[in-house]
Each structure stands twice: as C-alpha cells, then as structure tokens.
Amino acid sequence: MPGAFRHGRFGGPVGGRSALRAVCGAPGAELFDHPPLVGWLQWPLVALDAPTAVLRLLPQALWLGTALLVFQLAQRLQALGGQADMPGQGAAGHWAVVALALAPLLHVLGLGLLPDTLLMFLTAALMWWTLDLMQPGRGQLLALWASLGVLLGLAGLSKYTAIVPALAVAWCVLRAHGLRVLACAGPWLAVGVAVLLVLPVAVWNSQNDWVSFAYQAQHGAGGDWSGKHVARFVLLQVLVYGPLFMWGGGGLARMGAQPARALGWFFVLPMAVFTVASGGGTSLPHWTAPAWVALAPFAGMALAQSVQRGRRRWVVGLAWAQGALCVGMLGLMLSAGWPFVSGSHGQGNSQSPSNPLADVYGWDAAGQRARSLAAQHGLDQCGGAKLNFGQPHRLVRTAAAGACTGGPF
C-alpha cells in the first residue's frame, strides 16, 4: 500500500513515451529504439485522450502484479529450500516485497510505462512458469509450454534485451530435465509461439533497412572501455536499488543443490551483460531492473532467515534507512535533483552537462506542443512516409526544452 500511495502521489505528468505516442497518434509496428508493445498498450488510451491519471494505471498495475509474483515466488522457493517448517513461515514473501518496495528506481518504473516496466513483470512471470516446468512431470503439459511461449513473445515485443531472460529460461529447463527435453514437443511449441509473436518486429525491420538493429548496435558500442565506468555503474546500482537486495546471494546459497537454484541466472546473466557494457558508458541504471526483480525472491528468503536467527534489529534498521533513501530519491525527482549533478557529464561519449532526473520533467506540456508541431508539418503518423525515424524524438524533446525553460535542464 505505501508503494501504491507513492505512485499515486508522484505520478503526475506523463513521461517521454506517452508524449511520443501523443505525437504519433496511431499505433505503428515499431519504434526505432524499442519493440512496439509499449506503444500498442498506450495507444487506445492516448487515442481516447484519457487523463494522465488513467494513463498511469497500467504501469501501476504492472508494478503491483510484479510484487505479487515476487511474493509468490519467494513463498515457493522457501518451501523448496526446506524452510517451510521453520518459525515465521511465509515471511520470505513479505521480505521479498519489502526489498522490492524500498528500491527507489523501481518506483520510477511504476510511474511511467517503459519497456523495462513490462520486462520486470514478464521476467517475474517467466520465472514462475519456468519453476513450474522444472518440477517432475510438469514438462509433459503442452499448455504450460504454450503459455511460456506467449510470455517469451510478449517479452520480445517489450525490449530487445528480453533475449537474456530467454537464455535463462533455456538454461533452467535444461538444468532440470537435461538434453532429453529437446526430444519433446513442448519446448519447440514454446519457441514457435514466441517467434510468431515477435514476427512483426522482424517484418517491420526488414522493410525499414533494419534500422532498429543498427541503432541498437551503435548505441551499445559506447565509447572507450574504462574500469571507472564499471565502478561507477556498480555503485549506482547499490544506491538506486538498495542494500536489502544484497541478501539475494545468501538466498541463492540456501537453495543448495535444488534445481530451482538455477533461477538465479535470471539475475546473473543480465547483470553480467550490463556491467560489462557499462565499461563503454552505455548502460543505464534502469536497464537492470528486471534482474533485481529476479533476485528479490532470494533476498526475501535470506532476510526472513536473518530475522528468525535474531538479527531482526539490524534488518529492520537497514530497511528504515533504505526507506529514507527511497523517499529522498523521490524528493530529488520532484525538486529537479541536486545542484552538483547538473554539472556532470552525460552518458558515454557525451560531454554535455546532464541531470539524470531531467528526463521526467516537461513531457505533459511537450506532448501537446509536439502534437501541434507535427500537425503544422504534416507529420500525421510515426510510421508514415513523411516522418523520419528520428523526428518524433526530436520533435518531443525540442518541445520539452521550450516548454520547460524554468525546469531542470
């Protein structure tokens, strides 16, 4: 409930994605920087000119759904880890949600619908389905495999980095059943359903010079690799997600030789990928959000056991400290950040001063202004022949700069 209150209190103006969709005015097969599911989900409400509060309901519902899945996963893992009969049974789920709710950056993703908001929910859902398929006898149920394929397809329509949790799914299934599972129809059914769902992305790119993949390759290349970038990225991860997640390693260790321990790869794989990429200055803090969601159930197990072993005072004290950090970060978001940040350099090779909180300001007015500019220049649709791929972003960002001259830019 406190998390839901914060989302309702701080979720005022629309964000960049919503503003961009306001310019587009119709659903396209693709945005050049991301697959289309975010736009598809927002388009009906934008077309109906729904108020901002209504636009916020979808990311908030996804955030709450993610929390519910994390709670249930922690409960199941606690039982599989042999802790179900210990005092405080059921506490793992509660502590997992505490770790989730006290992570400052995750609340930002609950305020606006980003690809990462979708991938957070879908990662938790993939973990749930994968854990089910890892149990003896469950791998024979074609309905489970078909459902897994739908989740994988939706993840692929959310963000290109969904390939990473897909690899984690494959590893977990092979870890539980061995290579013999490939002789069954189920895995191939899941792959077929997933490919069918993401087919619009491939078709659109083939018709537009593979612009999305070219953009992602250029964006991911970054600048010169530096260990300082990696150290800064790791430190920032601890700051924006909080130290309570650090118990996740202990939760993984408590799983012992259980096959379910392989679910830890949903955290390890994306963290490894983005940490290495951060050396070139190209990894943004919110890209790892699905990975931290995957770690939350294991953190809940370890936190619950720490409380049971008499360390309640330390755990509760740390939770209060992280809660204060969370409120402080949201306060900084409202007040345009702290002064010294606005003089720091931008991401990657950019030498322009940047404020990491500036991107949450001005989009409501910018969307209206950009819609007017698009109409003046005859830019009716994002995918129309008159509109180049970079124009929506440039229009909206230019409008934002003009609409927020008194804001944090």
Tell me what you see in this structure.
This protein is mainly α and 409 residues long. 66% of the residues lie in helices and 0% in strands. It has 18 helices and no strands. Helix 6 (91-101) packs across helix 16 (289-334) and helix 8 runs parallel beside helix 10 (163-177). The chain is globular and about 65 Å long. The two termini are 33 Å apart.
In short, what is this structure?
With 409 residues, the chain is mainly α. The protein has 18 helices and no strands.
Total count of helical runs of at least 4 residues? 18
> Hey, roughly how much beta strand do the residues contain?
under 5%
Give the strand tally: 0
Report the average pLDDT across residues: 77
Summarize the helix and strand pattern as letters. HHHHHHHHHHHHHHHHHH
* End-to-end distance: 33 Å
Segments where pLDDT lies below 50 for 5+ residues?
Answer: 8-12, 338-350, 381-409
Helix proportion: 55-70%
Main beta sheet: none
Globally, the shape reads globular
Radius of gyration over all CA atoms, rounded: 22 Å
**Strand pairing plus helix content: what structural class?**
mainly alpha
Key features of this structure:
mainly alpha, 409 residues, disordered C terminus, 66% helix, 18 helices
Topology summary:
Elements: H1 2-10, H2 16-24, H3 37-47, H4 52-55, H5 57-80, H6 91-101, H7 104-109, H8 115-134, H9 142-158, H10 163-177, H11 185-207, H12 211-221, H13 227-241, H14 248-254, H15 265-278, H16 289-334, H17 363-376, H18 391-403
Helix pairs in contact: 2-3, 2-17, 2-18, 5-6, 5-8, 5-16, 6-16, 8-9, 8-10, 8-16, 9-11, 10-15, 13-15, 14-16, 15-16, 17-18
